[in-house]
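Anyone opening a protein record will find just a pair of labelled lines. With that in mind, the following record should read easily:
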Amino acid sequence: MKHLARTGLLSLALTATAAQTTWYVDASNAAPGSGTQNDPYASLTFALAQPTTASGDTILVAAGAYANERVDFLGKDVAVIGAGRPARS
């Protein structure tokens, strides 16, 4: 019975790790931000550098004026999508 419980917990942990996440970026937000819709990251570079940003994730980038950024995906296969409007309303 204990073996089944441990197997179930391991399965839940692996499922949570594989889940895709959507992160938000808005240059008008105060840095650094937490990447949520209510508190977006302030730069794409910072969003990509976070250990929580993983391959399979989506980064929604709000319209706005961004400083010149040298974007490095750091080997992460993420979708970067221009949201066309501010992340926060």
Observations:
- Confidence is low (pLDDT under 50) at residues 3-16.
- The longest strand covers residues 22-25.
